[in-house]
Every structure is written in structure tokens, then in C-alpha cells.
Amino acid sequence: RDLCVKALGKDRVVGVMMPNGEQKDISDSKRVCEVLGIKNITVNIEDTVNAAIDSVLNNINELGVNELTAQTLINLPPRIRMTVLYGIAALKGGVVANTCNLSEDYVGYSTKFGDSAGDFSLLNHLTVDEIVRLGEFMNIPDKLIHKIPDDGMCGKSDEDNLGFSYSI
């Protein structure tokens, strides 16, 4: 987001926080918006996620399946988030930033049509380690740039899910 602020100006960047119910680290997202001095809104996607799950479950037997996979449940919220982002961008006459990076894309740790979607991507050619160094260079608070990466959806860190660190 800091790169967007530097490139576009803080008056042209909006932070959109989209917790799925309660999110333990939402204060970090609010802090990022505060540090950058950008407008922000919070759109809780929990009701939408639950409605989508219920709707699919009500019709899933027709597919010969009787339950949703863990992967389906993990990837549904990022796809709903992207839909919300595009809705807000349409309201503002704006575009959506893809927040994936080279490390995530390389190991396949992004959600197609979720966090991997966007009109432009500032980080897609940078590894997680390079992004951390960039954050240090731009004087982003240490707590925000040295935070253990996690998708906020499955309760485990990215590295726990992957079985190795991003630096490896």
C-alpha cells in the first residue's frame, strides 16, 4: 500500500479491511492505514461467506458430493473479498491492487480469482524477503513488516502450511 501511496498520492488510495467475522489482527490493518494516512473502510464478509456456503451446501448433493473440502472453505473468503474490492473500485472509479508476491506465486500459495486477481501488481516480481527489506527502507513500523505471514483463514502461519520458510 505504501508504494500505491507514493505512486498515486494518499488521497487516491483506500484501504479496505474485510474480516470474516472477528479477525485477531485487524488492528494491524488499521495501523497500516493510519501510518499511510489513507482513508479506509471495514466490510465484514462473514454473512456473505456463510450465505455462499449455505447455498452451495443446499445444492451440493446434485453433484454427488455431501461436504465442502477444506480447500474450498479456505479459498471462498479471498474470492468474496476480491468481489467486494471490485465493487468498491467501481463505486470510486478506481482499480484494484493485486497484493501477491513472487514467493507466494512461486509455491502456489495464492488464491486464483482471490488475492491473485487485480488490475495491477506492485509486488509480483519481489520475494517476501525483498518486500521486508523494502518495508524497512520505507520506514514502515517493524511490527508490521516483521509479522509472521498468515492467511488469516486457517489458523496457521503460511510457513506452517507450506512446511518451509519463505526465505528457503
Describe this structure in words.
This protein is mainly alpha-helical and 168 residues long. It contains 8 helices and 4 strands. It has a two-stranded parallel sheet. The protein has a two-stranded parallel sheet with strand order 3-4. Strand 3 (97-98), helix 5 and strand 4 (120-121) form a beta-alpha-beta unit. Helix 3 (46-59) packs across helix 4. The chain is globular. The mean pLDDT is 87.
List keywords for this structure.
mainly alpha; 168 residues; 8 helices; single chain; two-stranded parallel sheet; two-stranded parallel ribbon
> Any low-confidence stretches, pLDDT <50, length ≥5?
none
Task: Work out the helicity level.
Answer: 40-55%
- Globally, the shape reads globular
Global structural class: mainly alpha
- Radius of gyration from the alpha-carbon trace, in angstroms: 17 Å
Please outline the major beta sheet: 2 strands, parallel
What integer is the average pLDDT?
87
Number of strands: 4
Q: Main sheet: which strands, in order across?
A: 1-2
Total of DSSP H or I helical runs spanning 4+ residues: 8
Brief digest:
This protein has helices spanning 2-8, 26-36, 46-59, 70-92, 102-107, 128-137, 142-145, 158-162, and strands spanning 14-17, 39-42, 97-98, 120-121. By secondary structure, it is mainly α.
Write the layout of secondary structure elements.
Layout (H helix, E strand, L loop, with lengths): L1 H7 L5 E4 L8 H11 L2 E4 L3 H14 L10 H23 L4 E2 L3 H6 L12 E2 L6 H10 L4 H4 L12 H5 L6
Parallel strand pairs: 1-2, 3-4
Helix pairs in contact: 3-4
